[in-house]
């Protein structure tokens, strides 16, 4: 077994550890409504979100991008330096956010993380092999890196906004939404698309250039324009609704184009994936499609008002994207690239936990909207449903112990 594979499997396992920790913190937040827990709720929210987005998703995506594009370039030592510097920033955030929230030391470590992401971006760009530079998947990967860099404008702007305008300013919220939009819809989604297209290209399933260009530009213009949907809480002019809606429609058209291409090469496509992987991809397609339809709905003023007034709609949407589309895709790709042992029992338990929690979150949003009461044990059931996700992830982590990985490679 190649030495770099051992390192990358360990990196994947580390990312999974962060996900387990994020899930544990999520359970703490859920049980906060049920039990007396001696922690500051807001501080745990900050820790939970940072560890989930940066510890799990960022680490898993960068590990996959390195394996697919750079693992044969002889740059392991350089990559390891970036990896360990990133770990320093993650551990720093873990040791500071739960106890002080946004304060000096947590801001220092989260700022250092931004520099780690810049370092990785520069490293990735500089070391792309010549034979991959003209590939379609690398265009998607570079777009993902671009969005990762662009998203960091949000955190940089927060400091100035807080000192000049204060945290109650509309610009404070806009900076956060800017960061989240380009992180979720730009960096994460485009990186996953790049990985998927890389797998197709590796097995000589090539999207015709004209079809790919249409897909690529529709998706990217859509990502940029749909940021306007994140500004609608500020009640801007109707132009924001229109162009934000156009962005959402363009993403749906890109999604349709990709599905249409896959259906056209169905026989070749199904030969690439096991039945389990095919079913998982179908689940991702359904989740991604619903995500984009929900996004389109927010271009309608009535639904904009709902998401602004009832925060659980937004929370449900963000978890749908993160726990559903992004995480299930990551599990699939990590497993297919032999970086993660994906035990089916724990995977299905995760999906059940995800389905239960999403149903309950949207149920609460709907009851608030309709002014009807929640059932009496709602918060307890929601907390217990969240533990299903924690148990599933902990089980996956156990299944990926170093000795298990080595024995099954």
What's the oligomerization state? Answer: single chain
Q: Strand pairing plus helix content: what structural class?
A: mainly alpha
* Rg over CA atoms: 21 Å
Q: State the distance separating the first and last CA atoms.
A: 8 Å
Which bin fits the share of residues in helices? over 70%
Mean pLDDT over the residues: 93
User: How big a fraction of the residues is strand?
Assistant: under 5%
Number of strands: 0
Which consecutive residue ranges, at least 5 long each, have pLDDT under 50?
404-409
- What is the overall shape? globular
The major β-sheet equals: none
Count of individual helical segments: 16
From N to C, what is the helix and strand string?
Answer: HHHHHHHHHHHHHHHH
Q: Could you describe the 3D structure shown?
A:
- This protein is mainly alpha-helical and 409 residues long.
- The protein has a domain at 1-127.
- Helices cover 82% and strands 0% of the residues.
- It is built from 16 helices and no strands.
- The chain has helices at 3-31, 41-70, 76-100, 104-126, 136-151, 153-164, 170-202, 209-226, 238-264, 266-272, 275-297, 301-309, 311-336, 344-370, 378-399, 402-408.
- Helix 2 (41-70) runs antiparallel to helix 3 (76-100) and helix 13 (311-336) packs antiparallel against helix 14 (344-370).
- The chain starts with a helix and ends with a helix.
